[in-house]
Amino acid sequence: MISVAAETTDLLLSLGVAPERLTGGDLAARSPITGEVTARLRTDDVAAAAHAAERATEAFRVWRSVPAPRRGELARLFGAELRAHKERLGRLVTLEAGKVLSEGLGEVQEMIDICDFAVGLSRQLHGLTIATERPDHRMMETWKPLGPVGVISAFNFPVAVWAWNAALALVCGDPVIWKPSEKTPLTALAAQSLFERAAAAFRAQGGEAPEGLSTALIGGRALGEALADDPRLPLVSATGSTAMGREVGPRLARRFARGLLELGGNNAAVVRASADLDLTVRAVAFAAMGTAGQRCTTLRRLFVQDAIYAPLLDRLKRAYASVTVGDPRADGVLVGPLIDAAAYEAMVRALDQARAMGARVTGGERVEVAGPEAFYVRPALVEIEAHAGPVLTETFAPILYVLRHERLEDAIALQNAVSQGLSSAIFTADLREAELFLSERGSDCGIANVNIGPSGAEIGGAFGGEKETGGGREAGSDSWRAYMRRATNTVNYGSALPLAQGVRFDL
Ligand code: NAD
């Protein structure tokens, strides 16, 4: 295989990123596949963030008046660029984030899907007509563009999360300023470059796509803070750890801005005795080991009913032993590397804590694949009795804690007994159990599934979670409303002036 750095540069250039952006800077971009430096990028400072906000504000003045279905045409053109470059961008995601190739491609497919969704949405940004108590009056609700939107994103979905936000924001009439993770800046440059091509195609049709409609800023936490504090951004969508949300949320509240927070998860599945074990093993394997345990929706806690505990565990151990860990570009590999040394150290710490609590750990060892700067691990199955210690926190690595239960109510209570509330699942053939799990007495998460693992959502539904996951909803359903402001309009088409609630004000 050719070197990761050389392949990364080739892909970036072919996706339209200028070569001078990739050298001589202060931020070393690395690939987790080998740990090697792939580019040295100049970072943007806080003044650049302020400049981007100014440009986005100017762009907003133009873009808000472009009819929404025309804005949808830009989303269509962006989707076309992504379709044409899916293989290259998908491979770049693999090189930069370490996902196996089908997941790298899947991430780009998700971007295409949200563009398609946004095209349809651009003709459906409708409000209500509401019955009014006054004669000769009409009351309605209308939705208006909100203003420039800040997007802060995490390393593990380096481009899809931005696209979820950007595609919707743009058809809603809002420019976007994006601060990608400092661990994955290169895919961001590539995605921004493809967006600029789409904007150029839109202009070539005679469309008005102002400069500053989409800006990518490269840098770390200080840039994120600058976006959170900028009064020109009425909405900041921030995806990442709960620790990050705890910083960003109050900053937004201080200036009464909207936050769309998509934070950490500690996702669980309940397996009941009636479950189809073949299906359950496959679903658990993907949800717990896929993306090397680095999805916000990764399955981290498994509650297994006593009667099937031994057979299910036996099958899971075999599935875990069969999984190939290695270079995510290679055929047959299902588990690629952790993002960096810190992720590996966090995994070791969590497993040590679990062992100290008497847990039995299968797997979890480091695997030598590409030298000391690359961090590959065997996914870990942890049989543990207490729902405590590391089980209660999100360790962003492939660790699955397995616990026994007998009564479904007890399993639901435990699954809800963590501070996060993102995703959850039940495996059962019993309709009553499935419905109880989905009911108001069931899972308290933003996502609750039956006979499907907690990870791997489609874009059609609203995505997000409760409690310390932040409460935000992105992607499908009516998530678009976060990107618009609602106005209630009352029109009097009569010649009298009746006041609401029968109030009199006779002059
Ligand atoms: P992270 O919190 O370290 O960083 C996320 C982003 O926030 C980065 O761009 C970072 O530069 C920025 N940031 C960090 N501190 C900030 C601050 N104080 N102010 C402003 N910006 C700041 O997260 P990560 O390690 O990149 O990603 C993993 C985490 O993201 C996990 O907790 C995972 O569950 C979560 N995640 C959640 C979702 C979701 O939709 N709920 C999706 C993907 C990832």
Note down, in words, how this protein is organized.
The protein is 39% helix and 19% strand. With 507 residues, the chain is of the alpha/beta class. It has a seven-stranded mixed beta sheet with strand order 12-15-16-11-10-18-19, sandwiched between helices. Strands 7-6-5-8-9 form a five-stranded parallel beta sheet, sandwiched between helices. The chain has a three-stranded antiparallel beta sheet with strand order 3-4-23, with no helix packed on it. Helix 3 (68-84) runs antiparallel to helix 6, helix 4 crosses helix 5 and helix 5 (101-121) packs parallel to helix 6 (160-172). The N and C termini lie far apart (86 Å). Bound molecules: nicotinamide-adenine-dinucleotide. The active site is at residue 262. Belongs to the aldehyde dehydrogenase family.
Secondary-structure map:
Blueprint: H1 4-14, E1 27-30, E2 37-41, H2 46-63, H3 68-84, H4 86-97, H5 101-121, E3 129-130, E4 137-145, E5 149-152, H6 160-172, E6 176-179, H7 185-204, E7 214-216, H8 221-229, E8 235-239, H9 242-254, E9 258-262, E10 267-271, H10 277-289, E11 299-305, H11 306-322, H12 341-356, E12 360-362, E13 366-367, E14 376-377, E15 380-383, E16 399-405, H13 408-416, E17 420-421, E18 423-427, H14 431-438, E19 447-450, E20 462-463, E21 466-467, E22 474-475, E23 484-492
Parallel strand pairs: 5-6, 5-8, 6-7, 8-9, 10-11, 10-18, 11-16, 15-16, 18-19
Antiparallel strand pairs: 1-2, 3-4, 4-23, 12-15, 13-14, 17-21, 20-22
Helix pairs in contact: 1-4, 2-8, 3-5, 3-6, 3-7, 4-5, 4-7, 5-6, 8-9, 10-11
The chain binds nicotinamide-adenine-dinucleotide (NAD).
Nicotinamide-adenine-dinucleotide binds at residues 152-157, 161, 179, 181-182, 220-221, 224-225, 228, 239-241, 244, 247-248, 262-265, 296, 394, 396, 422, 469.
EC number: 1.2.1.3
Pfam families: Aldedh
Family: Belongs to the aldehyde dehydrogenase family.
